Each structure stands twice: as C-alpha cells, then as structure tokens.
C-alpha cells in the first residue's frame, strides 16, 4: 500500500502516548505561533554532519558517547553546571579516544532535555495540612496526608512543587530560551579553546577523589601530551587547529522528543540540490509559487549560493515576465526545487522513548519524515519482528547513520533479549548504530530510603560489558553508550551521590549526602570516568586482539559482586 503523505503535522491524526493536556488551548496556540517564528537552534549543515559521523560509528570507524542529565532543569542554565557537563563529556571522550584510537562522536543530553515520560499521569505525595485550630501558643499543629497530584513532567511542562503541577504553555517558551542560552554558551566555550588538547592539564579533574583514577587520568594526559609534542616537532609546529583537529571538537545536542507540538514548531523546510539551470542569484522568483492553500510547501526558496540548505520562505509576488522567464525549466527541475526536506532544528539528534514507539502512533509518524539522525529505545517489551517494521517506517531508504538502536535491557535481562534483536536486524539490510543505555533497565529503590531511586554501578558496567560480548559473538558492533550522568557538585565541591559503587565506593547509606536529581539517578563525575576507563580498556584490547583486563571491575570494591 502507498505510504500516507507526511507533513510536520500529520502526527496529529495518530493516537499519541504521553500526551500533555493543556486547559487553555488558545494560550497554547499563541505560544506555538510564537515558537514557529523563532530562529532555529541548530542548522541542517550540523545535522547532516552528525549523520555522516554516525555512519562511521555503524561501520566501526568511530565510537559514540552520549550522555547528560536525566532531565535538565531551567535552573541548570548557568555557567558552572554547563561547564561541568561539557568538561565531563570531553574528558570521557579523551579517555575513550586514547584507548580506542577511534574518533569519538559526542552527543550531549543538553539544551532541550527538559521533558520526561512518566509511568502514571498522577502520583501520591505527602502534604502537611492543619490539624485542628491554632493553639493558645499561636502554633498551628499539622499532620501528614496523602494527596494525589499531576506527575512532574519536566520543566517545559510543569513545576516540581505540588502547587505548580498544572501544565503551562509558557514553559515551552522557557524551554526554547533556556536551550538557546545553553547552546550559545557551549558554542562560546568550544570556540574559545575549552577543548584545546594542546593544554589538556587546563581541563579540571580536581573533583576526582580517587587516587587510582587521578593516576590513570594523568597517564592518559602524559601519553597524549607526548603524542602532541611529537606532532608539533614533526610538522614544524602546525597544531591542526585550522582543521578543527586539536583546538575544538564537534559536540551535538539531543533530547527525547516527547512534546510533538514543540517539535513540530521547529520542524523547518529546507531545499537542497538545486538544479543547474537556475541562475546563480536571481533577484526574485523565476516562476510563480504554489498556492499556500494547496500545498504544504510555503514557497520556493531563493537561491543561496553560500549556504547548502536554504529555508523555504514565503514567496514574493511574481511579475508576469517572471513566469515566461522560467518556462524553459523542465517539470522535473521544478519539482526538485519545490520539494523541501524537513529538519527538526530544536536539536541535532532526537529519540523515541520506550513508551512512545507504537508503530501506529504519533511519535513514529512524526519521526519518519525528518532528516535528523534519530534514536529508538529498544528493550524487553519489544518483539524482534517489531524492530524490522519500525526500521522500515522511519528509514525506508536505508540511509547509513540515520537510526541508532538504543538498547535498555538491564544487566539481568540483556543476555535474554539482545541476541534476538540483533538477529532480527541482521535479517534486514538496515544499517544501524547499536548503542547501550545501561541506565534505564537498572533502576532500583534504596534499601535505607525506599523513596529514593538509585542504580548500582556494577549493574551499569555489567550491562555494557555483556552487550559488548554479545555483539562480538554475533559479528556486530556495539557502537556506543548512552548514559545519564552529571559533573554537578554542591557548594563544597562534592559530586552527587545518586548511584551506588564506583571509584568513590559509595554505599546505600551515602545516597542522602548529596542526592539532587528530580527524576532518575545519574552517574557522578568519578563514576562516569570509571565507565570511560572501562570502555577505553576494552576498546584498546579489541584493537590489539587481546582479552580485556577488566582492571576497574577487579580493582574497586563492590564491583566483583552485586551490592
């Protein structure tokens, strides 16, 4: 059967999961109208560059590191939190690069990861209420009662406080402006030499309290510095900065695309591959534009010879002479010029979550029409044949680098489900990036405080190492990891304490010391570097044809047995 015509709004005809209900529809539409007029956050050039790099990951020529907060908060849009996140991802990529000798593709969960799916639309909270009249001493006694409130869905939907749970359309604007400010500062840092490998000791790792990790990182820095010094001498002092070699790096943004109204507002049409018969830079359109009422295309864009992706702009009023000027063009040329490609310009990379990947659902419908590289969460609830079907829908042209399958099984389930999923994809001709999300399948409750969610470091690294071995047995490639992590510290400089284990040897009783997350627990600074060293050791061994030494697994307490 022919595929139904796609447009940025065709998802509205499909059933939608994890929908947000706004009481004031007029207010929502006013906000969306404003968003549609605001500039893009990222460009098609950057998006296409990421897709090319992910094609290298799929072929085993690069490694993908994706990480960041479970859910960003507007309050995190500040200098120190952004620098800590960026520094951590850069440090991890440096360690992985050192071990693997592979380019590292860096994607951050940042500048847009404000929404979170929830298992239930409401939750029960403890609330203090008056208990009787005010006493003679003027003190009001209170008691604790359970109250049902809407679940916290992220800063771009509602507030964390119980009395601020009503979805507010203005928060969508807040998400845009906080994303813009975050992305602007990231670009500023990278263009100012924040990732300059000529001075790697300027990269702070003062928060690392494990002497073993400090020693290992220092060894990486020393080895890299020796290599860079040799390059300078061998090339006469050329550092390669003019090619983006040692002075700056690519860092791409990503988020889970939950709120499709927001994503639609930033889905913009761009034209590419202009016919050669067009003049270089006409002052106005050569042919009359299509009627807005009869086409999703707003108009044929003017030729732009300096930018490979030109936004489709509203047409100017054509003169009669303009119509005759363009009669020599073929119909195929007209169709080629008038047919845009749609890019989601809110981020370079977006993904479909485990709760929103229904084949006939709104999210899959939206994702199938955009040019961005996309991710699809894959877990125990997904049947093997379902993977092939969703790949056919979102990537019918089999474009390399287009789709990343993000496995989120859990350490105790990955051996049961991943092999069948790999086999299902191998039966197709779909080129995919395999990525391990070792976080979402390993969430547990704290033993000392059941209200706190935590993750055990040993579970995280076990799922990663098991996934690597399974792919090795199947003759496929685990191309990367997807982690919830943070470089955040408190006022005293201590890392967060949300996951158990790792180089800090955190125990369950330590969680309350600096537990800061509003959603899921994250690896802290030290634990994230632990993962990076583990990956570097594995990839180094693979490169040399040796067995991994599992130094970290064997050397730190709590890693050889489950906590």
Automatic annotation (TrEMBL):
Its cofactor is Mn(2+); Co(2+); Cd(2+). The keyword Hydrolase does not apply. Phosphoenolpyruvate binds at residues 109, 377, 408. Residues 278-308 have a biased composition (Polar residues). Binds 1 divalent cation per subunit. The enzyme is active with manganese, cobalt or cadmium ions. Mn(2+) binds at residues 70, 440, 484, 520. InterPro entries: Aldolase_TIM, DAHP_synth_2. Pathway: Metabolic intermediate biosynthesis; chorismate biosynthesis; chorismate from D-erythrose 4-phosphate and phosphoenolpyruvate: step 1/7. The keyword Phosphoprotein does not apply. Its EC number is 2.5.1.54. It catalyses: D-erythrose 4-phosphate + phosphoenolpyruvate + H2O = 7-phospho-2-dehydro-3-deoxy-D-arabino-heptonate + phosphate. Residues 119-139, 273-321 are annotated as: Disordered. One of its GO terms (biological process) is aromatic amino acid family biosynthetic process. One of its GO terms (molecular function) is 3-deoxy-7-phosphoheptulonate synthase activity. Keywords: Amino-acid biosynthesis, Aromatic amino acid biosynthesis, Cadmium, Cobalt, Manganese, Transferase. Belongs to the class-II DAHP synthase family. This is Phospho-2-dehydro-3-deoxyheptonate aldolase.
């Amino acid at each position: 059967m022919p595929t139904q015509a796609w447009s940025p709004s065709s998802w509205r005809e499909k059933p939608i999961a994890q929908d947000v209900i706004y009481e004031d529809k007029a207010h929502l539409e006013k906000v969306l109208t404003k968003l549609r007029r605001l500039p893009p956050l990222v460009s098609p050039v950057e998006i296409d560059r990421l897709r090319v790099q992910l094609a290298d990951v799929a072929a085993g020529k690069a490694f993908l590191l994706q990480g960041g907060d479970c859910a960003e908060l507007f309050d995190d849009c500040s200098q120190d939190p952004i620098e800590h996140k960026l520094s951590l991802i850069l440090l991890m990529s440096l360690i992985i690069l050192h071990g693997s000798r592979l380019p590292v593709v860096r994607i951050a969960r940042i500048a847009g990861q404000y929404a979170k799916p929830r298992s239930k639309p409401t939750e029960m909270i403890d609330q203090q209420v008056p208990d009787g009249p005010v006493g003679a001493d003027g003190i009001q006694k209170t008691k604790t009662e359970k109250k049902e409130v809407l679940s916290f869905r992220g800063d771009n939907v509602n507030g964390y406080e119980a009395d601020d749970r009503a979805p507010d359309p203005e928060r969508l604007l807040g998400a845009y402006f906080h994303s813009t400010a975050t992305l602007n500062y990231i670009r500023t840092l990278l263009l100012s030499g924040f990732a300059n490998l000529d001075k790697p000791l300027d990269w702070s790792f003062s928060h690392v309290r494990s002497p073993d990790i400090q020693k290992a990182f220092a060894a990486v820095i020393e080895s890299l510095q020796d290599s860079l010094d040799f390059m300078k001498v061998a090339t006469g002092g050329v550092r390669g900065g003019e090619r983006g070699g040692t002075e700056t790096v690519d860092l791409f943004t990503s988020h889970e695309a939950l709120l499709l109204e927001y994503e639609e507002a930033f889905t913009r049409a761009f034209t590419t591959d202009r016919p050669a018969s067009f003049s270089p830079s006409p002052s106005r359109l050569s042919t009359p534009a299509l009627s807005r009422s009869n086409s999703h295309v707003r108009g044929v864009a003017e030729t732009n010879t300096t930018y490979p992706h030109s936004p489709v702009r509203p047409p100017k009023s054509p003169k009669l002479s303009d119509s005759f000027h363009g009669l020599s063009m073929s119909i195929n040329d007209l169709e080629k010029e008038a047919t845009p490609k749609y890019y989601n310009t809110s981020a370079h990379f977006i993904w479909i979550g485990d709760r929103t990947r229904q084949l006939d659902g709104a999210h899959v419908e939206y994702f199938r029409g955009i040019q961005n590289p996309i991710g699809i969460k894959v877990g125990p609830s997904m049947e093997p044949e379902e993977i092939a079907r969703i790949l056919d829908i979102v990537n019918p042209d089999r474009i390399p680098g287009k789709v990343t399958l993000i496995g989120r099984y859990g350490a105790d389930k990955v051996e049961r489900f991943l092999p069948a999923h790999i086999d299902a994809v191998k039966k197709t001709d779909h080129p995919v990036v395999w990525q391990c999300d070792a976080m979402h399948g390993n969430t547990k409750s704290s033993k000392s405080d059941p209200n706190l969610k935590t993750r055990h470091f040993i579970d995280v690294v076990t799922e990663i190492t098991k996934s690597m071995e399974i792919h090795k047995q199947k003759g496929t490639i685990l191309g990367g990891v997807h982690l919830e992590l943070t470089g955040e510290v408190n006022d005293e400089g201590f890392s967060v304490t949300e996951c158990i284990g790792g180089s800090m040897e955190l125990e369950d009783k330590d969680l309350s010391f600096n537990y800061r997350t509003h959603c899921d627990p994250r690896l802290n600074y030290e634990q994230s570097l632990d993962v990076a060293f583990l990956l570097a050791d594995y990839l180094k061994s693979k490169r040399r044809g040796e067995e991994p030494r599992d130094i970290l697994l064997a050397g730190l307490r709590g890693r050889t047995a489950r906590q």
